[in-house]
Amino acid sequence: DALNDALPPLTSFILPGGSEGAARVHVARAGVRRAERSMTALAAAEPVNPSALAYVNRLSDYLFVLTRAINAAGSGDVLWVPGANR
C-alpha cells in the first residue's frame, strides 16, 4: 500500500511494458493471474484454502504496483490510448 501511495492515480489502462524490469514483472504477474484462475476453477470442485486464494490475488496486485513503481523511476507506464496503441 505504501508503494502505491507514492504513485500518481490511474487515469488509463496500463499496457505491459515500459522498462525491461517492469516488462519482466508484467510477465510474472501474468503467470500469477493464470495460477489464480486455475485455483478459482479448482475451488469450484475441491476445497481450497481461502488464504491461498487471497495470497495469489494480493501477489498479483503487488506485482502490478511494482511495475508502476519501476516505470515511475524510469521510462514511465505504457498507457492505453483508444485507437492509438497498435
In brief:
The chain has helices spanning about 1-5, 20-45, 50-70; strands spanning about 15, 80. With about 90 residues, it is mainly alpha-helical. It has a two-stranded antiparallel sheet with strand order 1-2.
Describe the protein:
With 86 residues, this protein is mainly alpha-helical. 59% of the residues lie in helices and 5% in strands. The chain is built from 3 helices and 2 strands, in the order αβααβ. The chain has helices at residues 2-5, 20-43, 50-72, and strands spanning 14-15, 78-79. It has a two-stranded antiparallel sheet. The longest helix has 24 residues, at 20-43. The N and C termini lie far apart (32 Å). The model has no long low-confidence stretch (mean pLDDT 91).
> What is the overall number of helices?
3
Largest sheet: 2 strands, antiparallel
One letter per element, helices H and strands E, the order comes to: HEHHE
Shape: elongated
Question: Structural class of the secondary structure composition?
Answer: mainly alpha
DSSP summary, beta strand count? 2
- Return residue spans where pLDDT drops below 50 for at least 5 consecutive residues: none
Mean pLDDT: 91
Helical percentage: 55-70%
Biggest β-sheet: strands ordered side by side in the sheet: 1-2
Strand content: under 5%
* Radius of gyration over C-alpha positions, nearest whole angstrom: 15 Å
